[in-house]
Amino acid sequence: MSKKHALRRVMTATMAVAGALALGLSGATAQAATSLDYVALGDSYSAGSGVLPVDVTNLLCLRSTADYPHVIASRTGARLKDVTCGGAQTKDFTQSQYPLVAPQVQALGTGTDLVTLTIGGNDNGTFINALTSCATAGVLSGGAGSPCEDQNGTHFDDQIDATTYPALKAALSAVRAKAPHARVAVLGYPWITPAAPDPSCFVKLPVASGDVAYLRGIQAHLNAVVQRAAEESGATYVDFAQASEGHDACKPDGTRWIEPLLFGKNIVPVHPNALGEQRMAERTMSVLGLG
Predict the structure, then answer these.
(1) Catalytic amino acids?
(2) d(Cα 94, Cα 220) in Å, to the nearest integer?
(3) What is the pLDDT of residues 261-291, one digit of tens each?
């Protein structure tokens, strides 16, 4: 055999081995993605409540099959167990929220690789009570002044510090106990109100001009407490303060991530729409280095 033919055979064999290795690595990467055991916990912002289609396996929780956990799973090939539930509070991680609905942490195990969640907004009725109070006061004042802040002062902030924070710590401790090896991502809540009053938004979000900043401050405080609890529990906090700026409930359809209180397009107002759930998924994947 000539040296030329021998060299050609060596090169062919080398290329075949390289190709096999490449295929093997590609297969290993795909297998790693599909073998990721992912459990989604949390409230209606995690469940995508109001976004169609609805998961008919549990109508009580008003969970969407287009919520951000499903988006993450579809893009990473992870095996998803989605136990998110609309209206969930931190206590529902360890207690049954509804009959036949198990405590959310029961979905976790020692083999769980990834956990995502939003939680805390329903504790003390913070979101619904603040929004209801401010919308009612806004209508009665014709949108002038800051009647909601005048009536409530630091009430909502005080409750967040006094009860929501320790409840978050307890809930995240329960998550860690059930899934000691999992990477846990705790998402903040995207902005509901704009950075500055928008008079044209009053018909959709009837909050007095002076209370727009008040509501936003309550949400910022809640997010800060969620972040603190997450970081103290060894979890990764996914911050939406910058990412969701300009995508609040006052923005037009196609730009907003959160639907307004009135004249929105979702069956559940003041919650993320399909675009919002998608963007929450993308931001989470970016922070975690997934996909």
Answers:
(1) 44, 271
(2) 26
(3) 999 999 999 999 999 999 999 999 999 999 7
